[in-house]
Amino acid sequence: MSLLMDVKLRPVLTQLVNLGMIVSTALIIWKGLICITGCQSPVMVVLTGSMEPGFKRGDLLFFNMNKEPIHAGEIVVFDIDGHDIPIVHRVIEVHDKQDNRDIDILTKGDNNLVDDRDLYPRGQLWLNNQHIIGRAKGYLPYVGYVTIIMTEKPIIKYLLIGALGLLVITSK
Amino acid sequence: MHSAAQRANAIATFGVALLATLCVAASILDAFNTPDVQARVQVTKINRFRRQLDGNDEVRLTLNMSMNLESLFTWNTKQVFVFLAAEYETPKNGLNQVSLWDHIIQDKEKANFNIKVPTEYPLIDQGSNLRGKEIDLVLHWHIMPKSGRMIRDKMKLSSFSLPNSYTNKI
Hints:
The complex is a heterodimer.
Chain A: H1 2-37, E1 43-45, E2 60-64, E3 75-78, E4 87-97, E5 103-108, E6 132-140, H2 145-152, H3 154-170
Helix pairs in contact in A: 2-3
Chain B: H1 4-30, E1 38-51, E2 57-68, E3 77-88, E4 93-105, E5 112-118, E6 123-124, E7 134-145, E8 148-149, E9 151-161
Antiparallel strand pairs in B: 1-2, 2-5, 2-6, 3-4, 3-7, 7-9
């Protein structure tokens, strides 16, 4: 009886450890990216059409962040109160205070007719360094569409994770 | 011998690896492109130069621009976002950059042109520092690729000085 249990326990434990290794490797890669790029959110999927035709919904963007002052023309990602999701738009106006104490920034989506001032919270005319999460450096088309589908139709997300889990457990 | 699932897995893995290599190669090759942008800008008219009610200076111009951005395009280029910025310094701000006009170029054929346009966006200062101010007109471009690294650069075209007094009293 105890012999039977020994035979069945080890493969199951091995599979569990394998699963743990896969998950922790993914986590290490993600956290490592955050460290290397200096940006809280180094890889993001484009969610709106406000930067078309350059970026379409489902495209993937790569970000980094450093202490270099932000200049006009850069594409930045920023967070504003009242908006759950960060916005990726282009900087069209910059007022850099003397001694680099702070900077006033105005953004606009390439595909929008007006600048983002209406998006900023009431009374806020400019973005400052504290609002900017990162600047876009690289781009891959279409790759992120999977996450959009998974967010909009959660069933597909559960199906995918279920199928992946099944594959990991049943494969040697 | 090999199951259908194993074959599908092998094909998918190889396909993804190939795509990834192509994307990286495309981006690396872009670094070898030596751009040679030619452009000229001229302020033909100052349409409005006044002080707004809130105390900030406002300027609207008509610009005559010619530019040739063909050398920026590679086979990996999706579009070039080009804009003209007015850049100047004030006592409070070390650098002010205000975009006056922008344009998206999607084909190399459309990258060489000559236009005369009023500025799309007004130049509004933080304060009232623009009388007699010398302003640099700098052309900025942003090469957005089909995949890979985005490239930004700029070129100062010319400077012009605003008059010492407002032109409108509106």
